Amino acid sequence: MTRLLLILSCMQIIVRVTAGPPPVETIKFQAPDIFPGGFDWDDKHDRFLLGSTTFGSLFSLSLDGTLNEFVKDSDYAGKFAILGISVDGIHNRVVAVIQDLNFSAPVFSGIAAYDLDSNKRLFFTRLDTVVLKEGEKTLANDVAIDAMGNAYVTNSFGNYVWRVTKDGTAAVYAEDTILTTQPVVVNTSTDFYGLNGIVYHKNGFLLVVQTNSGALFKIDLNDAKVHNVIMRESLPSADGLVLRGDGTLVVVTREKVLLLGSASGWEAANVVGTVVLNSSDFVTCAAMRTSTRTYILPSYSSEIWGGMSRTNFEVREIQFSEEWQEDTPMWLIVVIVVAVLVVTAWRFQMAYFYKQYRRKRA
């Protein structure tokens, strides 16, 4: 009986070790037709900040699901959408990209920054007037901020990057034929989306993804030179990007969230993890709450296009299966199994010796 209990106890340990992923967090909130675009984590105030594509306002979302209006700027609220946003904790501000969603004839692309404590506007800059050629259409999409406070905004129509200084001065920064000559691999109504998600790497470069080609680019901040990151597979429909504390890159696509790793300073990269999405959720971006806790924000944008209304939204934590499997490595399972066998064999042997000893004594 004792041996049976020991075996059952060890088997329970193995089951716990090899069980599925730990529970993840979901933050539900209600806001009729808010249809969020970008979002980011504000560590100082322990909240998410998110932008609305329909209201053109910024909102704060606490971990208990309380949603409050953060900024309603009369220069664009109710007129244009907020797409990418980035919290700049170093300079205590949030930077938001504003865009006219009339893609056939957009009349406005811009960027604005607000103080995280007072909500005060720090600058508001139009980008549609800062172009390579007069009269070209612009689609300001996502934003990343470097250590000096410069903001880098992707132009999905022009396939180049604007740089906006800390005081709001804008200029075309990175434009290269490599950004405009990639073969299109996405054959959908969103083929016009070029450069999209962008992140700043502390080693002095940007990583930028192109939605319709699935290409990933590295842009050196010293000279704005653009390099195509070598990958075994492209990233079709790629949208938002976020860097994790361990140096891996989260890439949001229409069908999946991918985790990329690089051992070459992002000269080359490979997919090392995958989370499958429900495409109807229309997830466009991700954010990090800690160095490893990754969150997504379904936008449900297809419901806007279908003339539908929605009240319930949520921020969802995701976890790559490769991570929680690595948390309980195979060698540990093997050690436990071997320990069970050794202890069981030892007890059988001791029982045999004890019986032999009793016979001799008898």
Detailed description of the structure:
The protein has 362 residues and is α+β, with helices and mostly antiparallel strands. Helix content is 17%, strand content 38%. The protein has helices at residues 2-17, 301-305, 321-327, 330-361; strands spanning 26-30, 36-42, 47-52, 58-61, 67-71, 81-88, 93-99, 109-115, 121-126, 140-145, 151-155, 160-164, 170-174, 195-201, 205-210, 216-220, 226-228, 230-231, 241-243, 249-252, 256-261, 268-276, 283-288, 294-298, 312-318. The strands form six sheets. The chain has a five-stranded mixed beta sheet with strand order 18-22-21-20-19. A hairpin with a 5-residue loop joins strand 15 (205-210) and strand 16 (216-220). Helix 1 (2-17) packs antiparallel against helix 4 (330-361). The radius of gyration is 26 Å and the shape is globular. The two termini are 25 Å apart. Mean pLDDT is 87; it is low at 4-9, 13-18 and 326-337.
